[in-house]
Structures are given as structure tokens and as C-alpha cells.
Amino acid sequence: MSISINGSIRNLLFSFLCIYFAQGFFYPNGSVISKISLLFVLGVSFVFFIKEIVVINKNLFVSFLLAFILMNIIGFIIGMEYGGIYYSQLRNIMTAILPFFAVYSLTKASFIKEKHLRILFVAMLIISILNFYHSQSVLMFEQDRENVLSNAGYMFVALLPLVFLFDKKKLMQMVFLMLMMFMTIKSAKRGAIITFGLGALVILFYQLKNSPSDKRLASYALSFLMIIVVMFFAIDQLHNNEFLLKRMENISDGSGRSRIYSNLFNAWVDSDSLLNYIFGFGFVATISKSGSGHLAHNDWLELLTNFGLLGVFLYLFTLGYLLIYFFIKSNDDKSRYGMLLIFVLWFFQTGFSMFYTSSSSVFSLMLIAYYLGLRERPLGVQAVE
């Protein structure tokens, strides 16, 4: 492809991704605008996905991700259920994972650099804040109550890896962290708050560790100030949110999920079938095994039920790659800690909510794609604007 075509694909991919996630405040959910936007994002990404399938010498993470997404596509096809929750689940998985291959290929070809991802972050942050308040107002009107829960809070957790790219602009990074922490706390989603806090600690630790030697004292002072301000801000917000404090006090009840978890695990253990143990019960089998008609809201149980040990171990290898990447000292320090940040967010989100079935996970996977693509970019080749 020519330079102009590749650059246009990058710009259109990021633009249509923003348009797709803008549904809610900017235009109605599920409208033709969102469908066209998603069709473009998935269509372009699928082309790069096919290109990676035919590559023989591919990165190990890319190989795991290819196998994982093929497992879900095959499971969807042979399940013979193509509507409702089955379609929406596959759509979310494709939205989360497929753009990885486009970003990975375009980065290797020197058409994506940090600037493009930072612009994407700022656009998505604005969209997410507006959508958050829109969804809050809709929920309060529908439920006729002042305090409501909003899953929109998880979008700020999803965007946190891109904040890592502002490591050279510490003050700006601190402002973004405080703003996003405020929005996450306001959502009153306990899992999102805990996950966000752990991710923010990784970012702040990296800032402390990588302070320039000639400005180390000033950098340490600013980094410590960031930690103090962010912690004070978080504590202040928590103490002023009575609804959230009550939810934190009752965190052990799990919102009734313990029964769902127990039903799913017992269904797998008691199946007495080697095929079910290894390959599970089929795509989105969780809705029939949970006892409530709900999804697992836990990646490990979702995979164990749907794809058995095959799905769990494939997912474990995919996630484990990020931790291995961190411990390989030959990788540059920034990408190592970027991968650690994503690992922390990904791992904890698999238990509190879901990661691979959430479309917003696309941003974490895009950063992984960027770091892996950057490492495989030919030496001396500069990114194209």
C-alpha cells in the first residue's frame, strides 16, 4: 500500500472507532451510524487479521491471539445460534481484539507513533465523559432514583493504558489521572475503582523509577506530589460518596454473582464428560448454565464453561505473555512497564468484570500492538505522519 493509503487507513480507523464509541450522547445507540462505523473498523481490521494468519514467523503473543479469536469464531459458527446475545457477544469480542492486528501491522510499517495514540486518547476521554453523564441521567430518569450504577466507569479503566504514553508530560498525566479517577469513583463500580487504583500505582511507580539523573530531585518531588495529590483526591471523593461507601461495606456480597460462579463451576465439574472438560459446552453456554440466564462476568468461568480447559489455558498463555515480556530485560523499560500496566488491569478485570468480551478492551490491545509492532519495525525507519 502507498504511504497515503496507509496513513488514510490509520486516520479512518481511529476516527470510526471514536464515532462508534460516541453512540449515546452524540447519537442514539444502535443507529445506522454506529453500524457503519463498526463495519469499517472490523472490515479493515479483518484484512490485517487475514494477513497475519498467513505469516509464518509471527510473534508469540500474536499467535496466541490469533488462536484465541479463531476459537471464538469457530465456536460461534458451530453453535448454530446467530442472533441475540450470541451475536452481541461475538461482536464485542471482535471489536476488542480485531483492531489489534491493524495497529500491529501499521506500526510495523511505520505508520503509527505515540502522537496518534495520544490524540486518540484525548478524543476518547472527551467522548467517554460526555457519554458517562448522559448514561447517568438516563438511568436516574428510568429508575427514578438519585444514585445509580453505571458500567460506563469501566471505560476510564480501559483508557488508562493510553495515559501511560504521557510519561514525558508529568503534570498533564497527573491531571488526566485525577480526572479519570474522579469519573471512575463517580460510577460507583467497585471493581473498576480497585482496578483503576492498581493501574495508577504502576504509572506512578514508573515515573519515580525513571526520573532523569540530572533532574532526579525535582522529578522525585513532582512524582511524590503526584502520588499525594492523587491519593488525597481519591480519599476525598470516597468519603464524600455515601452510596459508594455503602457498596464498599457490602463488597463481599458480590451482587449475587457468587451463586452464578458456583453454578457455572459445578456445571463443568459435574458434567462427567471428557469432551466438556476439555472443550466446554459451547459458545455462550454460560447463559444456560448460570441458573439465572446471565453471562459469567468473569473471564475464567466464561471460558471454562464455553471452551473448557482449552479456552482457559489459551487465555492464560496469552495473558502470561505480558508478564514474561516485563521480565525480559532486553526490552526497553517503557514498553516493559506499559505491558505490566496492561497485565495488572487485564488480570484484575477478568475477576471483577470481563475483559475479552468487553469492546472497550480494544484500547489496551492497541497499546500492546503498538509496542510489539514498534519492536519489529526495521531499524532506522521513522514513523510516517
Task: Describe this protein's structure.
It is a single chain. With 385 residues, the protein is mostly helical. It has one domain (3-375). The chain has helices spanning 3-21, 32-53, 60-79, 84-97, 99-108, 114-143, 154-163, 170-187, 190-209, 216-239, 242-249, 257-269, 274-279, 286-289, 299-327, 333-352, 362-375. The chain is globular, with a radius of gyration of 21 Å. The mean pLDDT is 85.
Strand and helix map with partners:
Layout lengths: L2 H19 L10 H22 L6 H20 L4 H14 L1 H10 L5 H30 L10 H10 L6 H18 L2 H20 L6 H24 L2 H8 L7 H13 L4 H6 L6 H4 L9 H29 L5 H20 L9 H14 L10
Overall residue-averaged pLDDT value: 85
Indicate the percent of residues in helices: over 70%
- Characterize the quaternary organization of these chains: single chain
Structural class designation: mainly alpha
Taking pLDDT < 50 over at least 5 consecutive residues as the criterion, the unreliable ranges are none
Distance between the termini: 15 Å
The tally of structural domains comes to 1
